[in-house]
Model the fold of this input.
Amino acid sequence: MNAAAKQLFELWFLYTVGIVMIAARVFCRTRLVGYGNYDWDDYLVILVGFFWTAAVIFGRIFIQDADGRHTSDLNFEQRKNMNEKDYQEWAYGSKMFLVNLILYVVILWILKFNMLCLYKRVVRGLWTERFVKPLMAQVLLSLVVIILALALTCRPLKQLWQANEIGSTMRPSKHDLSNSDPDSQFEH
Done:
């Protein structure tokens, strides 16, 4: 089994586990309170199921169709010598990577918000209830900030997957920190 097949197996296995857990939660909650008495946390977990499905679909596209390529894996020489066909393939992979990264962040933050909705229901009428709404606002604000940080790192947005032209304002790093001894970076 090659690396892509292993990644796809893991992706679909984890998807199955997640969907089964979501389905079990929806089933138990529906039996307990019925559809008419759903609260925010019940609807949010269903929304997570849709985003989870979308993330797996985009993950499969990234692994299988784009061969796991994204432009941050390229060094300066590879970028400089790239033809148009390769550029399109690497740009496509980078787009899928960005979409998937944002989807995973959205999933995690919906789950955080979901837990706060559940907690709000659990502590209804207690003194700790007053802390839940500010925390909800903080979670929503942090979601927006993180998505903006991911999407606006390079402007215009298309420069996030720019592979063959680094432009006058983007310079290749002097040191490749990922493949070197950390102590050698600070020696003179």
